[in-house]
TrEMBL record, chain A:
<dbReference type="GO" id="GO:0006817">
    <property type="term" value="P:phosphate ion transport"/>
</dbReference>
<keyword id="KW-0592">Phosphate transport</keyword>
<keyword id="KW-0472">Membrane</keyword>
<dbReference type="InterPro" id="IPR035906">
    <property type="entry name" value="MetI-like_sf"/>
</dbReference>
<feature type="transmembrane region" description="Helical">
    <location>
        <begin position="29"/>
        <end position="51"/>
    </location>
</feature>
<keyword id="KW-1133">Transmembrane helix</keyword>
<dbReference type="GO" id="GO:0005886">
    <property type="term" value="C:plasma membrane"/>
</dbReference>
<keyword id="KW-0812">Transmembrane</keyword>
<comment type="function">
    <text>Part of the binding-protein-dependent transport system for phosphate; probably responsible for the translocation of the substrate across the membrane.</text>
</comment>
From TrEMBL, chain B:
<keyword id="KW-0067">ATP-binding</keyword>
<dbReference type="GO" id="GO:0005524">
    <property type="term" value="F:ATP binding"/>
</dbReference>
<keyword id="KW-0813">Transport</keyword>
<dbReference type="InterPro" id="IPR027417">
    <property type="entry name" value="P-loop_NTPase"/>
</dbReference>
<dbReference type="InterPro" id="IPR003439">
    <property type="entry name" value="ABC_transporter-like_ATP-bd"/>
</dbReference>
<feature type="domain" description="ABC transporter">
    <location>
        <begin position="16"/>
        <end position="257"/>
    </location>
</feature>
<dbReference type="GO" id="GO:0035435">
    <property type="term" value="P:phosphate ion transmembrane transport"/>
</dbReference>
<dbReference type="GO" id="GO:0005315">
    <property type="term" value="F:phosphate transmembrane transporter activity"/>
</dbReference>
<protein>
    <submittedName>
        <fullName>Phosphate ABC transporter ATP-binding protein, PhoT family</fullName>
    </submittedName>
</protein>
Length: 308, 262
């Protein structure tokens, strides 16, 4: 009896089976659908925003929108959005002022200086920080950082822009550090060797070779951090209050675009009122902001990419 | 540091004097009691089968081997009379005098110009005119100038493999080293590019001392003055290339050269 497996025959049988052929035909469609889901959702979100924001812009003159007076619930309501944009920009700047230098230095340490064991232990711990719910950070800002800052700045308000800005920065450090570290880690060792062999010190190798080679990934991490800061909600809701002031004073209470939306969706604006539509206008502007950030990031990382 | 170069007395001055050098990776001994000298303005080829310690040895000459964790050495390597393992020796300074070309071309992901000026810049040369002069002479010495002079600001990764390797040589030459270490510089290149590099080495040895690790016996025979045959971390035979290739003293050298193993 012939005991050898007749591979040729089995292949011949299977290769022409109907089941296999149908799977081959169906799968690409499934893959395509999965790929389009996120695109369709985006289109849906944008169209809702645009439709309702349009109702707002039809009733409120553009000059009023870009004014500094925001009083949506007054007897003579005014919808100047600049205080909100200002609030978002200021808290984001403070956050990135914390996150970029610390995150990048941490990434440099992890990628270039830390021993393999040290890196293996530190990186997961750092990434764990990214999993803390933002409401916890909000409480941390309100009940710990603000009182701490008050010992240095006595006339700091109980609600202010500085403390949530700093805490947002702390929240974003792991994101910047982890992504920048990935980018630097993927720079081939041959480049470090080339630089060291020319008599560079370790610091020179890091700053003049590794960081430039990884710059597009590093900038991408910054921009993701900024997007995170612009979109952050809970921390600012809790720790920066809801004063609709147009001020550059970081010790005062301010309101960001996201915090405004939270305030209004929690009951103050009846459906169909101007205040209700203003939410969509703010949402749309927020969306445009992040979109611009991402486009800028793409441009910068392409412009400065060092290809290897 | 300036010992006059006497063209008629080639090989008279000793550049590297290796004395009882042992090296371990953890518990594995990779180099065993090496003891020989490398002369000035000579091309010294190091040959031997894979894993015989030739790359380890050449990386010891500029202490690049220390990038690998758990490396231990004993013995001495005197570079122009100074032990390179001495605590007073700064590796950065040693490496400005001892340039290195690697197996795979490793230009920085920058422009051709930036690659060449990298070394001079980190060592403090800022003058644009001087830098341009350095770029031109270095690229000319590396026989690359004519091919790239019109596109100095293009990315180095747009060059072919052979051109990239010559760029790496130019990058070394830009800081005017004393010695060039080459770790299988042509193993990733095609025969034509290999030939150009060999011609270049022929040219460079007038001004530099060259130590080259090679897998190709023919290459060693073509370009070197002295040859060292390594086997399992030991030097089996060292001497004039012509002698080693025509009349090896050790049976193992003869077997390797005639292609009976390795």
């Amino acid at each position: 009896m012939d005991k050898t497996v007749r591979v040729k025959d089995i292949i011949k049988k299977n290769i022409n089976s109907n089941k296999n052929r149908q799977i081959e035909k169906i799968m690409p469609t499934l893959f395509f659908l999965a790929a389009t889901i996120s695109i369709l959702t985006t289109i849906g979100i944008v169209s809702t925003l645009v439709v309702d924001a349009y109702k707002f812009f039809r009733q409120v003159p553009i000059k009023e929108v870009f004014s500094t007076k925001l009083a949506p619930l007054g007897s003579n309501p005014s919808f100047g959005i600049l205080p909100l944009i200002n609030g978002t920009v200021i808290t984001s700047i403070i956050a990135m002022g914390v996150a970029i230098p610390i995150g990048l230095t941490a990434a440099i340490y992890l990628s270039e200086y830390a021993s393999e064991n040290c890196r293996k232990a530190l990186k997961p711990i750092m990434e764990l920080l990214a999993g803390i719910p933002t409401i916890v950070y909000g409480f941390f800002a309100y009940s710990f950082v603000t009182p701490l800052l008050m010992t240095i700045i006595p006339d700091l308000g109980a609600k202010n822009a500085l403390s949530p800005g700093i805490v947002m920065g702390i929240m974003i450090i792991p994101l910047v550090a982890s992504l920048s570290e990935d980018a630097m880690n993927s720079v081939p060792n041959a480049m470090r060797e080339g630089a060291l062999a020319l008599g560079s010190t370790k610091l020179e190798v890091t700053i003049k070779v590794v960081v430039p080679a990884a710059i597009s990934g590093i900038i991408a991490s910054f921009v993701l951090g900024i997007s995170r800061a612009i979109g952050e909600t809970m921390i600012v809701v809790i720790a920066s209050g809801s004063s609709k002031n147009f001020t550059f004073d970081v010790t005062k209470s301010i309101q960001t675009m996201t915090a405004y939306i939270v305030e209004f969706t929690s009951g103050d604006a009846g459906s169909g009122t101007l205040g209700y539509y203003s939410l969509y206008a703010v949402g749309l502007i927020l969306f445009v902001f992040t979109l611009l950030m991402n486009l800028l990031a793409r441009y910068i990382s392409r412009r400065y990419r060092e290809e290897y | 540091m300036t010992i006059p170069i006497d063209k008629n007395n080639k090989g008279q001055n000793v550049i590297y004097d290796v004395k009882n050098l042992d090296l371990w990776y953890g518990n594995d001994q990779a180099l065993k009691n090496l003891d020989f000298a490398i002369g000035e303005n000579e091309v010294t080829a190091i040959i031997g089968p894979s894993g015989c310690g030739k790359s380890t040895f050449i990386k010891t000459l500029n202490r690049m081997i220390e990038m690998i964790p758990n490396v231990r050495t004993s013995g001495e390597i005197l570079y122009r009379g100074t032990n390179i393992f001495d605590k007073s020796v700064r590796v950065e300074e040693l490496r400005t005098k001892v340039g290195m070309v690697f197996q795979k071309p490793n230009p920085f992901p920058k422009s051709i110009y930036e690659n060449v000026v990298y070394g001079p810049k980190i060592h403090g040369i800022r003058n644009k005119k001087q830098l341009m002069e350095i770029v031109e002479t270095s690229l000319k010495s590396a026989a690359l100038w004519d091919e790239v002079k019109d596109r100095l600001h293009d990315n180095a990764y747009g060059l072919s493999g052979g051109q990239q390797q010559r760029l790496c040589i130019a990058r070394c030459l830009a800081i005017q080293p004393d010695v060039l270490l080459m770790d299988e510089p042509t193993s990733a290149l095609d025969p034509i590019a290999t030939h150009r590099i060999e011609e270049l080495i022929e040219e460079l040895k007038k001004n530099y001392t060259i130590v080259i690790v090679t897998h190709s016996m023919h290459q060693a025979g073509r370009i070197s003055d002295k040859t060292a045959f390594f086997l399992s971390g030991e030097i089996i035979e060292f001497g004039k290339t012509t002698v080693i290739f025509s009349n090896p003293k050790d049976q193992r050298t003869e077997d390797y050269i005639t292609g009976r193993f390795g």
